[in-house]
Recover the amino acids of this structure.
């Protein structure tokens, strides 16, 4: 097996599996992960682990595109329209999942560093799955608006959490003696510089695309800008770890809010990105060792329970403090169970960044994604039906 043949198999069979899964009214991402399971180390071994590692750069590139799209969803006018109460719900449901997951992993004796990484990966939600269900049942109402806002914004918080936790974990795994003040300073500096670099490249992309006419030229410039920013931030001067993902998200945020040609940039990247999304979902499934997942059975079960409980409690607490309507307090957490997209990318990103625990991270975070993608749509459907918002649009 060579790299080109592997990519050909992934895209060719990915198309047919995606069509089949969509006919079964399931998220296509589930089909891609199952295809990866079939091709990977758990079953046929068509894509062995060493070949998967050679293709890691494709996963990193796809994740930069995902982060850019997350940034494109963070509109300033949306924040103004949603108000303080909804912002509180979004923050608390994400923080709730993070805290519950961290405590759960610590109780399962996974260690502080690994627990932080798993908690940061697990606090994000899958926007595509939730939006798919809301569109299918033509949902409309206050709960629907809250769910759309949550899935669009907690990925940004999850990216930030991961960048901070990764910096802490590196210090623990490397066993470097460093004061808490210096560690916090390096984390703040790394995140701040990543945001500033992202905004600077967003301004550059905006200025260039104002002069560019053809969509293909816009695509070349946009992809080049995202990769240039992400590549520059791979350096680690004086132990400061930057975040290419936050920089890419900052580029998307600037373009969405300040670039007059943001629709042209989004349109140019939309179709281009799809093959890379298929590749990284399939490679994610191929990396999952099902035997290791079975060996971590109780850990995976605690992960699922803690993640759902954290989302449910955080959303309820935020709704209670902000005096949101009863349906929002009760059912928001049920619509946030799905986990894919940025979480899958982050678990693969972490597996490369922390090879000493890479297989455990992939087994827990990715193995449970298969479960959440099967149960999540049903729970979102339950939420909008109980809130009386199905078939209102």
């Amino acid at each position: 097996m060579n790299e080109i043949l592997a990519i050909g198999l992934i895209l060719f069979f990915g198309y047919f599996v995606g069509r089949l899964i969509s006919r079964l009214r399931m998220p296509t991402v589930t089909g891609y992960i199952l295809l990866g399971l079939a091709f990977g180390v758990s079953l046929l071994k068509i894509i062995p682990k060493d070949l998967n590692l050679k293709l890691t750069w494709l996963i990193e590139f796809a994740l930069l595109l995902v982060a850019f799209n997350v940034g494109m969803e963070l509109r300033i006018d949306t924040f103004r329209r949603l108000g303080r109460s909804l912002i509180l719900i979004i923050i608390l449901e994400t923080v709730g999942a993070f805290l519950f997951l961290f405590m759960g992993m610590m109780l399962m004796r996974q260690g502080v560093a690994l627990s932080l990484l798993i908690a940061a990966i697990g606090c994000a939600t899958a926007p595509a799955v939730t939006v798919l269900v809301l569109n299918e049942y033509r949902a409309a109402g206050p709960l629907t608006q809250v769910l759309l806002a949550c899935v669009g914004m907690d990925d940004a918080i999850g990216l930030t959490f991961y960048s901070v936790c990764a910096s802490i974990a590196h210090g623990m795994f490397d066993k470097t003696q460093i004061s808490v003040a210096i560690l916090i300073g390096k984390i703040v500096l790394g995140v701040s510089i990543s945001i500033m670099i992202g905004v600077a490249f967003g301004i550059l992309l905006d200025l260039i695309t104002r002069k560019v006419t053809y969509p293909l030229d816009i695509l070349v410039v946009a992809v080049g800008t995202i990769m240039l920013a992400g590549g520059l931030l791979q350096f680690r001067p004086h132990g400061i770890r930057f975040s290419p993902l936050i920089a890419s998200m900052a580029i998307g945020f600037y373009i969405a809010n300040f670039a007059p040609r943001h629709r042209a940039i989004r349109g140019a990247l939309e179709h281009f990105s799809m093959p890379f999304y298929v590749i990284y979902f399939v490679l994610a499934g191929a990396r999952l060792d099902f035997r290791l997942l079975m060996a971590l059975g109780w850990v995976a079960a605690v992960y699922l329970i803690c993640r759902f409980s954290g989302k449910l409690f955080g959303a309820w607490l935020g709704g209670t403090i902000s005096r949101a309507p009863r349906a929002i307090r009760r059912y928001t957490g049920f619509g946030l169970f799905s986990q894919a997209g940025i979480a899958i990318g982050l678990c693969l990103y972490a597996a490369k960044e922390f090879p000493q625990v890479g297989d455990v991270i992939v087994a827990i975070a990715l193995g449970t994604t298969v479960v959440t993608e099967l149960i999540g749509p049903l729970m979102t459907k339950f939420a909008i039906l109980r809130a009386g918002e199905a078939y209102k649009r």
The chain has one domain: 29-38+47-386. The chain has a mean pLDDT of 83. Residues 29-38+47-386 form a domain with the Na+/H+ antiporter like fold fold (CATH 1.20.1530.20).
